[in-house]
Design a protein that fits this description.
2 copies of one chain form a homodimer. Chain A is of the alpha/beta class and 643 residues long. Helices cover 38% and strands 19% of the residues of chain A.
Amino acid sequence: MVNVRQAVILGAGLGCRLNGVLNGRPKGFLQFGRRPIIEESIAKLIRTGINDVIIVTGYCFEFYDRLAEKYPFVRTIQSPEFATTGSMMSLCMPAPWVQSDFLLLESDLIYEVRALQTLQSSARENCILLSGKTGSSDEVYVGVRDNRVVNMSKCRGAIEWLGGELVGISKITRALYQQMTSLAAEKCKQNRQYQYEDCLTDLSSTTAIHYHRLENLAWTEIDNEQHMNKALNEIYPLIQRRDSETVVSKHVERRVLLNPGPATTTDTVKYALVVDDICPREKEFGDLVEGIRQDLVRIVHGGDAYEAVLFASSGTGAVEACLSSVVPHDKSVLIINNGAYGKRMQQICDGYEIKHIDYDIDWGEPLECNAIERLLTQHRQDISHLALVHHETTVGILNELSTLSHLAERLGVEVIVDAMSSYAGIPIDIKDSGIHYLVASANKCIQGMAGLSFVICKTESLEKTKDIKPINLYFNLYQNYAYFSHKHEMQFTPPVQVFYALRQAINEYFLETEQGRAIRYATLYDVLEKGLQALGFRFLLETEYRAKLLTAIIEPKDTRYAFSEMHDYLYERGFTIYPGKGTLQNTFRIATIGALTEQDIVNFLVHLEAYLVEKEIRLRPQQREPIVGPRSSLGRTIVEQAV
Amino acid sequence: MVNVRQAVILGAGLGCRLNGVLNGRPKGFLQFGRRPIIEESIAKLIRTGINDVIIVTGYCFEFYDRLAEKYPFVRTIQSPEFATTGSMMSLCMPAPWVQSDFLLLESDLIYEVRALQTLQSSARENCILLSGKTGSSDEVYVGVRDNRVVNMSKCRGAIEWLGGELVGISKITRALYQQMTSLAAEKCKQNRQYQYEDCLTDLSSTTAIHYHRLENLAWTEIDNEQHMNKALNEIYPLIQRRDSETVVSKHVERRVLLNPGPATTTDTVKYALVVDDICPREKEFGDLVEGIRQDLVRIVHGGDAYEAVLFASSGTGAVEACLSSVVPHDKSVLIINNGAYGKRMQQICDGYEIKHIDYDIDWGEPLECNAIERLLTQHRQDISHLALVHHETTVGILNELSTLSHLAERLGVEVIVDAMSSYAGIPIDIKDSGIHYLVASANKCIQGMAGLSFVICKTESLEKTKDIKPINLYFNLYQNYAYFSHKHEMQFTPPVQVFYALRQAINEYFLETEQGRAIRYATLYDVLEKGLQALGFRFLLETEYRAKLLTAIIEPKDTRYAFSEMHDYLYERGFTIYPGKGTLQNTFRIATIGALTEQDIVNFLVHLEAYLVEKEIRLRPQQREPIVGPRSSLGRTIVEQAV
């Protein structure tokens, strides 16, 4: 795992060989610069993304306790028998607090920050940092074979193949740590001086302990006066110089998100977040926003007739912006509710006391256009807007757009579409579809980062809302639009970095092309569908109603099945799946959007199958009929009434 | 400049030596993989952050025009006389569209993406990419001296010190481009075959043309059949393999933001945005949010009595959340308005029709507690809340907190404080100060990224709002709080990456310590104040009222002064300053918050002085008295009535 968040520092030791220098301090409180070396070490850990530093204390523990008071991310755990036990006993102490992979350090080290960056960027699990020759006279030599550590010794002669010298900084997985503490429980009975290095060696025959060698790393531990002097005169100044020149760098690992957004992103979109600091009131930033606004409209072929208005918010924020800004106070909106997001539109209207007429059907049921037409006709004088969700991710249904919008057009009703989970995933022609307001966000099929949402508005309609008295400030659509139009700036502080990521994501969308993305997503879905069928899973929706961007799957009835267990099994292997929503708790959901490849889906299916086999969960491949559809009576028993 | 956004590709050429192969296509449409080499080149440009690709076309221009139709980030400019002119004439064609530094490429290249990454990461301006020996038989050798390019030639003998071989990819500043087009206007009169390489050589004696050599870069131009074959058999497969292994990387340049937020951030906070994709409904993310919520409270010493509620929004969003959620429908809020942000609170209340009683004084005037006490007493039955801005950045005034909050406490009124621009910059004890709701955002003195805001709520007060009927959805404080408390998840999709950056920023805050940050900010202000005084600038506010985080400065009356000119002069040198707000247009503003050092302020002052000298702007150092204060009559003439 790259970029671990915890660190454990072994700081219990007595420092016998430095008695004259320490004056009753622990070794970590030796000082060469402005702060004790332990504080410098902590600062380096924080710099490389550590959030949680556990120091195992013993000798003069109160020094470290004061650090824990000063820094909220530091906590201390006492090793009561430190004076008579080895380092492995100390390392067992924080077991209840070690939640994840961690960096393990000794407290008496000075080192370049590059040492931590190297381990944090390394894809190798259980990785020990080695250096070239130090001549410290106190070296721990590390023997290696086949890229693995095999033994360690202070005696060079005991090593066959020399990997390098042990620095005292390692990256340890939680699994290895559990093995280490188990082994230590036994070993310490015989040998209270059992050291963590010995423990690693003992485990190395069964568990791969890797290493990373940094040839010219400047570092030393401070164990005696000779080390002190060399540190003071040579090594510390060298570290200071090199650290000041070290450029921050970051590696990421690929995880496959199968939840319905935020979707998996490309690494280039991730790194697009890293930009020079910029004030968003600068023209340079205004130009960026303007380009994005135009391209968001271009994606749905809005030409010059539409304007995009952006908000720093989740997608729900933009839905709220639209509903609260465009429905005249004396009019109503007809809201179609066949899932959680239709329901949410009703909640928004309830809050603001916007009049709404509801078309409520069971979640997952397809719309009946005739019924909607009847409602529209019946309330003809009252209804100004029709609002619906395009791809309702509650069940993965794709709601019919054009029949409804043409119906609305005939009756002079404007159309609001929540296209959160279809925009840029399914080709949409906003003009042909007769949509007046389309709402979406940056973190779904467009494959940008969360924190930005937008409404693509028919300019003619938007201009008409100018005279509606605003009923809020932040989400008023017209005012946000007017502010940008007049000032070429966002009305409120935008999430600057998320904009740059969206810029990159849009470029990558155009590079893939509308057709290219639609085909890729369709392929991801096909591979998933076939694979799930082969495994014997059943689907909630009939094929014809599926958006094919998210699939709701009936959970196995087997008692050996538990969603959370399946989730965790897959999560550990790099795949994130999603539970059912609301009353549809007997399903789980797999979204096939984002920067995914066919191979990702195949890999997912392989792991899913392995889980089923391991848990001996039996599916019934013969029962493959879909169970929710307009005429499915079985569906009605599974899907409870939504409102 | 690192990470330029434009690219110019020279694609006009005839490709005479490839007649048999081209079949009426331009050279960019040769194809080795799935797409023509020009499309592969464009994809690499997009991958490295280019937004705007200009292709200069000539021979078979319609091929490129089709690319421009396919990709919105591509545009084509024809070079009408391409058949009889050299490359420099072509390079002059896009002059009206070249807005910034850009990458210059030839169209007939195949190359590793690393070539672009190297130039994009290089701090060297005007940088030509060179390679080691290619043996292509068509080499352009580049002569160098003192780290600068001095000449280029196809004849090895003409080069004294060989820097390497010209690849045909360069980073050109806008300034150099202007010199090139000017020189070309002359040179082309005599020599229509003037090449861009010759132009660079001609300018190299007066302008530094740098180079970057990549020894083992895999690349070739395709000029003849020999190149074709070598590309097909060797180089293209090598490029494909290496590109698939290339890790995305990104360098940033330091800019000093002196606007009142988003503030300058550390590089470690910037890189903290780059994380593995994660679904924010995962426990791992919930834990991150929980840790941040606790630490946000800890920063203002709220102990267990307060809860932080976070929103994906700008700071204004959180102010709106607070006002719209906590004032009972039958009560009023007393709003103190002595600046734009006090006024904004009134606008929010107007939108929602929340009753408010206004204490309006001139922007920049200090509060008169007696007057506020009179209002509170007068409307005692009606007022449930008092709302004010702590540090009003309109003028940089620090509004009195504790006198007012104790007054409010006596009268049973709860206190809402917009501490947007003071939180984590000035030590605040939320309990001692008697604050019930404190609103702030991630991108000011806490030094995180924009896109996140929060309200720190006294839990006892927040719990009481449970029964107030919500008047919106997204910003309802209690519901957001309850959702997180019950589910350990944010109610609406959070800006995932901005959370990780805030985590890092908070860690760095604690590392610096509350006192450390306060002292650093105070020092930044002192250096600024002394420097501005020495230059003869005058300040809007009397010292005693200044927050000392943002300074409002009276603009020079000199006709040679113009804010936009001064801004642009400093912006080009890496410093962003800020105009006055609203009616206070005769000021400009300098914030001294963010990851800044004393040296940054000193550097800023040096550039500011250079600007004044260059423009011969005279200030009157003798007139140093502050001109706005409670008893300043002059102030009243400058500061117009705000409401």
